[in-house]
Amino acid sequence: MKNTKFVVKLNRGGIRGLQYVQRIDRAPIQTTSNRKLALMMGKLTAEDVVASMRTSQCTPELVAVEVRG
Questions:
Q1: Structural domain contains residue 69
Q2: C-alpha span between 62 and 69 (Å, rounded)
Q3: Which residues contact 26 (CB under 8 A, 6 or more apart)?
């Protein structure tokens, strides 16, 4: 059975390249450039992260990933 999880991809204007959210339990949110280390989360949590990141100087985007469950 496959489940759909989400990662949050951040584009910070080309300075650091693409980043993915790694941890959300700290302030500021930790990011990584390695997609395998990105935090897999449910849609509601991912949407909350995107909403909180919109106020900063980056462009957040939800990316759907299918994982075996």
A1: no
A2: 20
A3: none
